[in-house]
Amino acid sequence: MNIELINTGSELMLGRVLNTHQQWICRRLADLGYVVTRQITVPDSSHEIQQAVREALARADLVITTGGLGPTSDDLTRDLISELLGRKLIEDPLALANVKRFFALRKRPMPARTRVQALVPEGAIVLHNRNGTAPGLALEVKPNAFRQGGKVSWLVMLPGPPRELQSMFLDQVVPQIREWFPLESPFICHTLRTTGLGESLVEEKIGDPLRTLADAGLEIGYCARTGEVDVRLSARGTGAEKIVAEAEHIVRRLIGDHIFGAGDDQLEAVVVRLLSERKETLALAESCTGGYLANRITNVPGASAVLLAGLVTYSNEAKQTFLGVRADSLAAHGAVSEPVAREMAEGGRRRTGADYALAITGIAGPGGGAPDKPVGTVFIALAGQGHTFVLNPINQFDRQTFKYVTSQQALELLRRTLLKSGRVRQEGMTNEE
Amino acid sequence: MNIELINTGSELMLGRVLNTHQQWICRRLADLGYVVTRQITVPDSSHEIQQAVREALARADLVITTGGLGPTSDDLTRDLISELLGRKLIEDPLALANVKRFFALRKRPMPARTRVQALVPEGAIVLHNRNGTAPGLALEVKPNAFRQGGKVSWLVMLPGPPRELQSMFLDQVVPQIREWFPLESPFICHTLRTTGLGESLVEEKIGDPLRTLADAGLEIGYCARTGEVDVRLSARGTGAEKIVAEAEHIVRRLIGDHIFGAGDDQLEAVVVRLLSERKETLALAESCTGGYLANRITNVPGASAVLLAGLVTYSNEAKQTFLGVRADSLAAHGAVSEPVAREMAEGGRRRTGADYALAITGIAGPGGGAPDKPVGTVFIALAGQGHTFVLNPINQFDRQTFKYVTSQQALELLRRTLLKSGRVRQEGMTNEE
Questions:
Q1: What pTM, to 2 d.p., does this model score?
Q2: Which residue, A278, A311, B117, B253, is the most exposed by fewest CB within 10 angstroms?
Q3: Do A309 and B307 touch (CB under 8 A)?
Q4: CA distance A212 to chain B (A)
Q5: What residue in A sits closest to B34 (Cα-Cα)?
Q6: Could you give the ipTM of this predicted complex?
Q7: What digits encode the pLDDT tens for the residues A400-422?
Q8: Are A317 and B352 a contacting pair at CB < 8 A?
Q9: B57 contacts B144 by C-beta, under 8 angstroms
């Protein structure tokens, strides 16, 4: 089955905005067992849009377009596709009601030109837009000049704003796709998210042990980003569920310590969840990561129940004032040192009363390196009840990747400590019984 | 002139990674006066890559591919394109030396399979990779079966890693493109970056006054993202420079207060620069933005000269402990209130000794709203010498957009205050002379 995605928008061709639709739609389809075979971006120009749609319909079973359904003069997709397919545009009463409702709710008059959004090509399935005004549209395209071989294609047009596109896609397009193109056999896909091992090391550890399952139909995909590697396990057919479950079991046995989640899980959300479950609290003391770690944690809804304070102590004075780091330690070891990291964490914990405090001090670069402490030198300290643990990685990256990788190591240190302390506590309870 | 961009990578089709090359390359070309007419993404599969390249060569004067030049089995681009164009692959001594040098510098043995990266199609221009091992390649494609009309095309292959691609593109590909495809007439493009006005308001204020210049050839583009609007002024031809300069003059006169920079300027970098120039320092006290503002500022190299500390005081206790906010104020007005924002800023300034302190308190949502303080309520306070100024916007967005917009408002408040204080100081100096 061929699926093609066409993103329209002159602002994309000028590089003014990032195309996030591609990743989002491709990801959702892949996890359902459908793989996009080609993605195309064209500007808001009649010739380019019609040519791209015509070519895609000649190749693909399903063509999805994004953008160009709004009320302004550069929103051309609806008109151009109707023209290309020889369909009349008719006003759809439900779509019109939705446009009217949208403005009524906001107590604003409905501009005359917005009415155009209620026009739909004859015979189209109208996809309700609950977050905006332009409906999505789905059309069955009979075999014709575009496509030889007597196969029907489906064409789906989605509005451009992500909030409108995403809910429409999940609620209405996914069920349609499953109905139009039922998978010949079950598809199972499970992604495990790991951190702390490079891609080649992950592959080395699990590649051979999974070989028998791979021969039986398991597909293994690795996706490496700096600081994390996703392992994607998938299979098709009647035995798919069993194959993927066995593969997951093997992977967890071999590198389970490094697996922090599955699917779309984020490490910061996992850590906030673990702390919330334990009703424990956290304080942060950051130097070189400059608030990046606090920002990641506070991106998680509910973080306020867990995070008491984050102290970005860039200057030595701030380290002394807010964390009680000793002037002696700074003078003797420098701000980027194990003793200072330790004092930052312990001071942060003491002054906030948090159960745990994470401290980070290091040299992000580009400047500030020295022969004994090169750019990339980092100390990460975690202070908990009764003990403080310090990591000392060397993270040589550009400034923003440095922040990401370092915060990832800090979160992972905390995640593992929380899991271990959970285990100890449970064991302790068992012993006391 | 037609330019097409082909991004290869199965991980793109699976939605595992975001295609940032598209925006980056399109943006660089657009600002030079070259517009990409089509962008295509295909998986690492022989059939798809060859088909996409063949079709692109049939339409375009310049085809740029990214990815697939590395040493692993799914790096197919070099081989497939050589095959498609009937070129032999020959080992290039300089490219080989670069691969060897790369491993020697890192004191690692050179794996045998990496040698394949020194193979280049006969007649190719070899583009040196100073950040990696795979060289880029440029090929002149004579009119042939792919393209009717007797026109020559150029095909450029770039490595996938952004660090390798970007420096190669700027240093080596841009000069080549200018040589291969000299612009028929000068192209001038200037982008002004604004904040604090919506897109329609910007258009309303400058659209009419620019009409005469638009008739003379000025092109005006608006690119709106939440919290900022870019105004792109461009023109072609002999009068282009004058037209764009006049347009910029008009725009600056009408909405100059809202213009924080040009081109790729970032608001946080502008603020760090202004503070550095004045040798003044900053402290931050964030509640609802959770370190996002500190993170933006510390993304700017050299921020450590300016930022003394950032205090993420999520809990009421932290606001009292670290900023000296009074329990009375918290009890009487709540944490999200003008008096508390004011005390946070003044406390942050006092305790760090900074010249300025910015404080933010608000309700990011999704939870936590109340009838008199709905989700999105924010107080932003800026404490300077002798006075504290407070803004009270309502920012109703999802959690991450909320953080961005709020930090944007805070930075803009600081930027304007710095500019005003600069003016006052200069005036003061003049009076004293």
A1: 0.85
A2: B253
A3: no
A4: 21
A5: A14
A6: 0.84
A7: 889 999 999 999 999 999 998 87
A8: yes
A9: no
